[in-house]
Amino acid sequence: MSQNYNNFNYNNNDNSVRQKQNFTNDINDMSAAFADADARMGFITKTYLYVIGSIFALIGIEFVLLSSVDGTALVSLMMGSRFSWIVVLLLFMGVSTLANVWANSSTSPLIQHLGLGLYIVAQSIILLPLLWLAQRVDASGGLITSAAIATGGLFSLMTVAVFLTRADFSFLRTALFFGGFALLGAIAFSMLFGMSLGPILMYFGIALACGYILYDTSNVLHHYRTSQHVAAALALFASVVFLFWYVLQLFLTIFGNND
Q1: What domain count does the chain have?
Q2: Residue 196 above 80 pLDDT?
Q3: Residue 239: inside a domain
Q4: In a domain, 46, yes or no
Q5: What is the C-alpha separation between 136 and 130, in angstroms, rounded?
Q6: Which residues fall within 8 angstroms of residue 31, CB to CB, at 6 or more apart?
Q7: Does a structural domain hold residue 206?
Q8: Residue 63 CB: number of other CB atoms within 10 A?
Q9: Using the 8-state DSSP alphabet, how is residue 31 labeled?
C-alpha cells in the first residue's frame, strides 16, 4: 500500500494562539516570574493540569468521532479538491483566533474556559482525517501510539530543558512568527500547484513545533500572569498537537511508503 500524504498539512501559526502578554502591578495577578513561590507553583500546576486535561478531552472526542463518523466521506469533504483543505485551514485559524481571545479574557473565567473548550473541539475536527488515514494504514493503532509517544518524549525534553536552564526563549517570537508564515506558504504552494515537498516539510514542522514548545514553556515561567493558566494551557496544548500532527504525518509517510 503506497499513498502520498505529503500535501496533508496544517499550520498552527503564532498569530492564532499566541498573543503578547500584558503586565500588571496587581500583586494578586502579577507575572509568575515575580510572584511568590506558592503563587508561582500554583499557576504552573494548574497550567499543566489543564494541558493534561485538554489532551484527554481531545482523545475522548476523537474516540467518539472515529467510532461514529464516516471517515471516507469526511476526508472527501475536507480534502476532496485542491482548495478544500485550504478553506478548512482558514476556518481553523479563524476559530483559533477567537478561542485565543476568549482564553485571554481578563473579565470572565467562564469565557476563558469556553475558549479552551472551543479550541479543543476545533483541533479534534482538523485532526480527524489524519487519524482516520493512520488507522487505515495501521488498524492496530500502533502508528498513532508511536507518534503520541514520540510527541510526549519531545515535549518532555523541551519542557525539562526550559525548567532546568530557566532560560527565556521569548527571543524566538519573531523567528517563530515568520517560520509559521513560511510553513503556511509552503503548504499553500504545494496544494495550489500539486507539488509535494516530501518529508522536508514535515521535519520543518516538527522543528517549528519544538520551537513553539520552548517559547510557550518559557512564557509560563517568565511572562504569563498567575491568573492566565487557561491561556497558558491553550498555548502549550496547541504546540503539543502541532507537534503530534507532523510526527504522525512523518510516521504515516514512512510506514505507508513501506507497506
Answers
A1: 1
A2: no
A3: yes
A4: yes
A5: 10
A6: 21, 23, 222, 223, 224, 225, 226
A7: yes
A8: 12
A9: B
